[in-house]
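User: Hello! I'm new to structural biology and keep hearing that structure can be predicted from sequence alone. Could you demonstrate with LysR family transcriptional regulator? Please show me the input and the output so I can see what each looks like.

Assistant: Of course. The first part below is the input, the amino acid sequence of LysR family transcriptional regulator. The second part is the output, the predicted structure written as tokens.
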Amino acid sequence: MTLQQLKYAITVAQTGTITEAAEKLYISQPSLTNAIHELEKEMNIEIFTRTNKGIIVSKDGEDFLGYARQVLEQAEVLEDKYKGGGGGKKKFCISTQHYSFAVNAFVDLIKKYGQDEYDFSIRETQTYEIIEDVAKMNSELGIIFMDDFNDVVLNKILKSNDLEFHQLYSAKPHVFISRRHPLAGKQIITNEQLEAYPYLSYEQGEHNSFYFSEEIFSTYERKKNIRVRDRATLFNLLIGLNGYTVCSGIIDKKLNGKDIIAVPLADEKDMRIGYITHRKGMISRLGNTYIEALKKYLQ
């Protein structure tokens, strides 16, 4: 097995066809096909399933390619360290729930390591997809929260996927509302006071269970509910409809806007914010730098 073979396999998975991958890699189709066959034979695994419509990554192949990506990333780190920057583009990917502090930490990472060439990704997405991204090693880290309600279910899912949760911060619940909201002058807000206003939350697709909710108190019965996919829409509705959402209270005026404020919610329940990693993976230098940046914003 060679690094070149791993690169070939990942490129085929990315493009979905031998033809396109061969063009991208500047090699002939027969040579690429043979290289993939030799890799599968040596590793005793079927990475790709051949069908009439083309090739798809097998279940075993998804696991294998996750490890392959880590091997190539670590090889690039070595080349970068000992060849004086000759390791090509730095690559890093995280998946996260919709947190401004996760974006701020990502900005800090790029400012520190993005001077030359880089290929970084941040995915603000649904909770189940975050777990799936880290399980498949498409993302090195996943940023989520746990509480006394969801931790049993989520820890069971994490364990079944060989993942671990690392707590960074324990936050008291807050309400995000518009600065012009009728309750904006309150020092503390109760759930009863919020009953008349629309509740905004992030929809979780086919996994739209209480346990995957990004908001604490997901089981609390509310009369008016609006589900959204992105942070900008949620904040626009907070302002336009006098809506609210329940969150950690960590707010960034540059990203969230000066018209959004956080007010403590009258409840003692905590949100435990942290990151998930793969048990069989290694945290890279970029990953450790990102975690340290997160800690700075979560103090």
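User: So the tokens describe the shape?

Assistant: Right, they're a compact way of writing down the 3D structure. Reading them back into a model, for example: The mean pLDDT is 87.
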